[in-house]
Design brief:
2 copies of one chain form a homodimer. Chain A has helices spanning about 45-50, 130-145, 160-170, 185-190, 205-215, 225-235, 250, 265, 285-295, 315-320; strands at about 5-10, 20-25, 35-45, 75-80, 90-95, 100-105, 110-115, 150-155, 175-180, 195-200, 220-225, 235-245, 260, 270-275, 305-310, 330. With about 325 residues, chain A is an alpha/beta fold. The N and C termini of chain A lie close together (about 10 Å).
């Protein structure tokens, strides 16, 4: 049993490189009381990983230099000193970029067992039936209160969170327009995810496309991107619109301003609310239950893009920022 | 009966001047069916008046060139063709900068009778028991949901809206810190309006003063100012804080950026909500009833600053932007 680890060696400026990490091999640690030792099967690759590498104020402490890179993952218990957990159990938790992790319960992102007997692939609990689906649910249902009569726009709509957010808004009766990069994704939003319309933010006439597909304005904006894409959408918002601010991937690599218009918030009486999974502990079981039900009933679909090998985790993160993924980006480790 | 009118002749660049208006005298119009003809007694002077003069997107149409300057006012009915209204009745409505106005019911800012028999001076229904008190109530109670355990900060705290907002937050059990300009106002906030602490935004060590008076961070920000004052407060906000965005007086005269940080909204999961009286029609009777009750019980205090003469309305507006007022700024017309 060799534990390969990628530890943050320096803070990347823009793109992430394998050279930003030190590679180490060691024995896995012995299991401790109240914990399990688990072997990582899949790593969840998320925009927020990039924020954790930066020494800036954020919703969790940044990853320290010399520390194993933090990441959520799906893992198999190999040893346990925690009641209710036994070798062979599938769990998710903050495994980090390594083969073996000591995991303990606690927090919305803490150790939890993967539900069994539901006919849902385990890795889906890292995406549509886990953090990404719950984020989509929290933003659309709890923050934005989307419903019938609303026009909802989702940015980064072909991603794991975005594709779920759009489908949830549809299930709640809204008209849904997705924003994504490239004609393949735009087509996929309509044909596979059932969006009413989709527009390409890379197109020269993006603003005109968005206007043409939101003739009655925008009531709900589920925002993953920030920057010019977000500002173009805000210009289309109706009075008393709601912006569920899930993320701003456009600024995580250190480029671009973080300063956007506030006069529109005032003039249009908008509600702009930042939200994060770490505040969703109470919502989690209800949302996951609903998502599993929708998934099994075929009322919601989800995709995964899988990159093979622990040492490709930095590359997978870059691919995510390039928008090269369809749906959930995963790294297969074991 | 001569009707003096101030009509917007050109759009002011920064400061407002009497020269920006054309002065006209005419006969008052005849009363029309479903309306009253009313004689203006007091004009309400509000930061939003300045916005109405600008040809920019806003929550109402801007005042057109050649149109009587829009303003709320307290007036006495002199002729009526509206059921329930008779000569001598005191009313408030959008009188504008003129002696006589035709007023009709409708909307949160439409014609309404001043309640009588409550032992409350009529002009108070233009301030603490009217638009300003209801704005304060809406922001603190409905938008921010302020309560026990919260630290609430109010900017422009010595103004009509701000002084009411702070006192309402106190009545709801919060710890309240006011931000105002100059030592007189700072003293007044604590001694007269009962704020727990107050700081002077003009002081060199404003940020340090704010830090010292909000040791446990800020949970609720009732924002009237925008700009650097607001950004200093946002830097002190706690996770899941609420910003009730009532106004941004710092930008209404056309100076200063309207672009502020959004990364904090995300990182701290803040709720930022713009709100406006025009959306408060349902809240109005409940809020006014509560404010009158508090005022009569001596649980809330309010002040007025009165400038005499219709032709001094532009000057009164400038004084408001200079922060020369204590509490509600009014122009006495009749």
């Amino acid at each position: 049993m060799i534990n390969r680890q990628l530890k943050l060696a320096r803070r990347p400026e823009s793109r992430v490189s394998l050279d930003d990490f030190s590679y180490e091999e060691s024995q896995p640690p012995p299991v401790e009381d109240g914990a399990v030792l688990a072997r990582t099967l899949f790593l969840s690759v998320d925009p927020t990983n990039r924020v954790w590498m930066k020494d800036v104020p954020q919703y969790m402490p940044p990853v320290a230099l010399g520390e194993v890179m933090r990441a959520g993952g799906l893992a198999e218990v190999v040893d346990s000193r925690l009641d209710g957990f036994a070798p062979g159990d599938l769990v998710f938790g903050m495994t980090g970029w390594q083969d073996y992790a000591l995991l303990r319960p606690g927090g919305a992102l803490g150790l939890a067992k993967v539900p069994t007997g539901l006919d849902v692939a385990p890795e889906r609990f890292l995406g549509i039936c886990g953090p990404n689906g719950v984020t989509a649910y929290a933003g659309m249902v709890e923050v934005a209160g989307v419903g019938e009569g609303d026009t909802a726009v989702v940015t980064a709509a072909a991603g794991s969170v975005g594709s779920a957010a759009g489908q949830i808004a549809k299930l709640r009766g809204a008209r849904v327009v997705g924003v994504a990069g490239g004609s393949d994704k735009v087509r996929m939003l309509v044909e596979r995810y059932g969006f009413d319309a989709a527009v390409d933010y890379r197109a020269d006439d993006f603003a005109e496309q968005l206007r043409a597909t939101t003739r009655e304005g925008i009531d709900v904006l589920f925002e993953n991107v920030g920057g010019a894409v977000m500002e173009t959408a805000i210009a289309r918002m109706n009075a008393r619109g709601r912006i569920a601010l899930s993320g701003m991937i456009s600024i995580y690599e250190g480029r671009g301003s973080t300063r956007y218009d506030w006069a529109s918030i005032m003039a249009k009486r908008l509600k702009v609310q930042g939200f994060n999974l770490i505040d969703c502990e109470k919502l989690w079981p209800k949302a996951v239950g609903q998502l599993v039900e929708w998934l099994r009933a075929g009322r919601i679909v989800a995709d995964e893009t899988i990159v093979d090998g622990l040492d490709r985790a930095p590359e997978a993160l870059n691919l995510l920022f390039d928008g090269a993924n369809h749906g959930k980006m995963l790294v297969r480790v074991a």
